[in-house]
Design goal:
By secondary structure, the chain is an alpha+beta fold. It is built from 8 helices and 6 strands, in the order E-E-E-E-E-E-H-H-H-H-H-H-H-H.
């Protein structure tokens, strides 16, 4: 079995519960798309990264589940918990199960007292990837656009510093998401901004990716 039960304590309602987690030995990366969507051989850990409290409905990515303020808790109790209908959370998950759970995480993220646009953007991007797995292009493009809008707000608010992505990577994601939704002019503009920026020089891997992707656009437009 590639899954095991992990114990959680809900920071909103103090409920103790168990949620499925993927054994690290079972994670086998296959390939990666240019917007960092990952594909795996066998079980996909992306399906299991949303933690949902079955008692109150508070939901978040595992890394963010306990990153919540007292004001956030009060807001979530009012906007999420008061409307929650208890349900069974699937232990083994399909793409559609995962999409439903990520949408629950999205509801909690936008119900916080202070909305973290970086957190929201990450959830939206993952929903787009899940639709990509299903070859559902319409919904994929819709969620890529929503993720793009939130990454733009993150960048414009100068909130680009995070534990995961530096400002160069966020600029790259903005450019790449523009490319994927078909706005090549904005994509070229952002790739060009990135390539000439001091942030890119501090992240040579992202700089190389940006150069490759701007060439992809040029080849298409020949």
């Amino acid at each position: 079995m590639d899954l095991y039960e992990k114990n959680w304590n809900c920071p909103v309602c103090n409920n103790n519960f168990k949620a499925p987690a993927v054994k690290s030995s079972a994670i086998k990366l296959d390939k990666k798309d240019t917007d960092f969507c990952l594909y795996y051989k066998g079980i996909n850990p992306l399906f299991y990264d949303v933690i949902v409290c079955p008692n109150c409905g508070y939901s978040a990515l595992s890394k963010n589940f306990n990153k919540i303020t007292n004001k956030d808790i009060e807001s979530i109790k009012e906007k999420v918990c008061s409307k929650w209908l208890k349900r069974n959370i699937p232990f083994e998950r399909t793409e559609l199960d995962a999409i439903s759970l990520y949408k629950l995480a999205l509801i909690s993220a936008i119900s916080k007292f202070k909305i973290n646009k970086f957190e929201v953007a990450g959830i939206l991007l993952r929903i787009a990837w899940l639709y990509r797995y299903l070859n559902d292009t319409k919904n994929e493009l819709e969620y890529l656009s929503l993720a793009l809008n939130n990454y733009l707000e993150v960048y414009e608010d100068n909130s680009t510093v995070s534990d995961e992505l530096d400002s160069a990577t966020i600029m790259y994601l903005i450019a790449e998401l523009y490319r994927r939704i078909g706005n090549f002019e904005q994509s070229k503009r952002w790739f060009s901004m990135l390539i000439s920026s001091k942030e890119a020089r501090q992240n040579p891997n992202i700089l190389d990716l940006a150069r490759e992707q701007i060439q992809v656009i040029k080849d298409i437009q020949v």
